[in-house]
Amino acid sequence: MSDLQLNWTEHELLATAPVAEPLIAGGRLCHGGFDADGTYVTPRTLGRNPAVSAWQQNQREIFGTEIVSVPLDTWPETYPNVAQSKYLLTEGVCEPVITNLTRIGTVEGFGAVIRYEDTRNLQRFFADPIEGTALGHLGPLFEAHARDEAGHEEVAGHKDMWFAARDIAFESPAVEDQMAVMLQRIGIPATAPTAKEIAANKLAMRVHDDLDPTFESMIRRMLSILFIEISAFHTFAWAEAVLSDENLVAGSGEAARLVSYIRADETPHVEYLKTVLTEIRDRTLITESGGRRPGKEVVETLWKNSLSESLGARRTAYLKTAVDELQISLMGNPRRDSILEGFHELGTFRPDASGEFAPIGTY
Ligand SMILES: [Fe+2]
Ligand SMILES: [Fe+2]
Fold first, then answer.
1. Ligand 1 midpoint to CA 345 (Å)
2. Which of 43, 82, 312, 345 could disulfide-link 31, Cβ–Cβ 3.0 to 4.6 Å?
3. Burial of residue 261, with CB atoms counted within 10 A of its CB: 0-12 exposed, 13-18 middle, 19 or more buried
4. Which ligand is nearest to the CA of 272?
5. pTM of the predicted model as reported, rounded to 2 decimal places
6. How many domains does the chain have?
7. Which domain holds residue 340?
8. How many CB atoms lie within 10 A of CB 288?
9. Å from CA of 232 to ligand 2 middle
10. Cα–Cα distance for residue pair 303/285, rounded to 1 Å
11. How far is the CA of 353 from the centre of ligand 2 (A)?
12. CA-to-CA distance for 328 and 151, rounded, in angstroms?
C-alpha cells in the first residue's frame, strides 16, 4: 500500500495557496489570484488537489477499478454556437449574448445549494468502510465547491466573475433592474430553492424505494452537477472565443481571461465528484430495511437517468429558450427576418417551421 495521506481536516481542504497578486475583476476582489510567475491559482486547492489525487489512487489500489469518466463529446456544442453569437454581435444584437452570460452566472451561483446536502454519518449507508475517502470528506468538499461557485464573505466567486466578464465585455449593460423579469423569462427562479422545497423534491424524485431518500437524492445531485460541470467546458470554449474578439466586445480580452480562470477552477469539482461516485459504485450499500445492494447497480441506474435528462428534456428546453430570447431581442428590429435567417444558417441544426427542435440524436 502506498504511503498516501487519506485523512484531511476541513481547514486543509479549504486552504488556498498564497498568491503574489489578487484577482480583481470589475473593481471587485475575486477568489484565487496569481503566483509570482503570474500564473492563475485556483482557490482552495492547496489541500483539495493532493487529497483528491490520493483518494483516487487509493480507490484504484483497493478495488482495482478505474475512476468513472465522462467524455466532453457526450454533449453537443453550445447553442447558439460561436459563429451565430458573433454574427448577432456584428448585427448589433447583443442582448442574447448578455442574457446568456447572466444565465451562466446565475446557474453557477445556484451551485452553492450543494452545501445543504446532509453529509453526516454517511457510513450507515455502506457495508464497506468509507474512512479515508472523498466520501468521508464530503462536507468540506461541498463547502469548497459552494464557495467557488457563489463566493465567500466579501470575496467574489464564479457567479460574480461571470457578471464581471459580461460587464467588462458589454460595458455594464443595464441588466440589474430587469434581473427578475429576465430570470423568469429564461426559466430560472429569482431565488435559490428553500430547504423545504429541496426536501419535497427528494421524495418526488426517488428512484430506488429501498434506499434512504436523502442519500439517494445526494447521489442524484452529484451526478446532475457533474454533468453540468463537464458540459460547461463547451460553454467556456464558447465564451472565451466570443469574448476574446476585440472587434466585437470591449475590455481588450479581459473578459475572456476571466472566463479562463473560472474554467480552471472547475477541474477540482469534476475530479472530486468523479471520485465520490466511483467510491459509491465500488461499495456495497445498506438499504433502509438493512439489506444489501451493489453500489454499481444504483450508480449506473441514476447515471443513465441523469444523463438522458441532461441530453434530452433539459437540452430541448434550453434550445427553445435561446430562440425565444433571440426573437424577443429582435422585436421591433426592421431587419428581424433577415437576421433570424442569417443566424439559423450558421447553426448545425435549426427549429422547424413551428419552432420545435427535432428530438436529441437526430441533429
Ligand atoms: Fe463554477
Ligand atoms: Fe463548478
1. 32
2. 43
3. buried
4. 2
5. 0.91
6. 1
7. 10-345
8. 13
9. 9
10. 16
11. 37
12. 32
Half-sphere exposure of residue 192: CA atoms within 13 angstroms, side-chain side: 14
Q: Count CB-CB contacts under 10 A for residue 241.
A: 17
Interval between CA 288 and ligand 2 midpoint (Å): 32
CATH code of the domain containing 304: 1.10.620
User: CA 228, CA 222: separation in Å to the nearest integer?
Assistant: 10
DSSP for 320-362, please give it. HHHHHHHHHHTTT-TTHHHHHHHHHHTSSS---TTSPPPPTT-
Ligand positioned closest to the Cα atom of 225: 2
- Residue 360 belongs to a domain: no
Structural domain includes residue 127:
yes
Q: List per-residue pLDDT tens for the chain, 363 residues long.
A: 578 999 999 999 999 999 999 999 989 999 999 999 999 999 999 999 999 999 999 999 999 999 999 888 888 889 999 999 999 999 999 999 998 999 899 888 888 989 989 999 999 999 999 999 999 999 999 999 999 999 999 999 999 999 999 999 999 887 754 456 656 655 556 666 777 887 787 778 888 989 999 999 999 999 999 999 998 999 999 999 999 999 999 999 999 999 999 999 999 999 999 999 999 999 999 999 999 999 999 999 999 999 998 888 888 888 888 898 899 999 999 999 999 999 999 998 888 888 787 755 554
CB atoms within 10 A of CB 50: 14
Identify the residue whose cell numbers are 454581435: 89
Burial of 331 (0-12, 13-18, 19+ CB in 10 A): exposed
- Residue 131, CA distances (Å) to 13, 55, 88, 241, 357 in order: 16, 11, 53, 43, 48
Q: Biggest alpha carbon distance in the chain?
A: 71
From the CA of 227, which ligand is nearest? 2
Question: Taking a C-beta distance cutoff of 8 angstroms, is the pair 324, 69 a contact?
Answer: no
In angstroms, the CA 300 to CA 321 distance is 30
- Measured in Å, residue 267 CA sits from the centre of ligand 2 at 8
Q: Is residue 69 part of a domain?
A: yes
Phi, psi of 235 (to 5 degrees): -65, -40
- State the ligand closest to the CA atom of 31: 1
Q: Ligand 1 center to residue 146 CA distance, Å?
A: 9
3-state DSSP assignment of residue 127 = coil
Taking the centre of ligand 2 as the mean of its atom positions, its distance from the CA of residue 158, in whole angstroms, is: 8
CA dihedral defined by 183, 188, 193, 198, rounded to 10 degrees?
Answer: 170
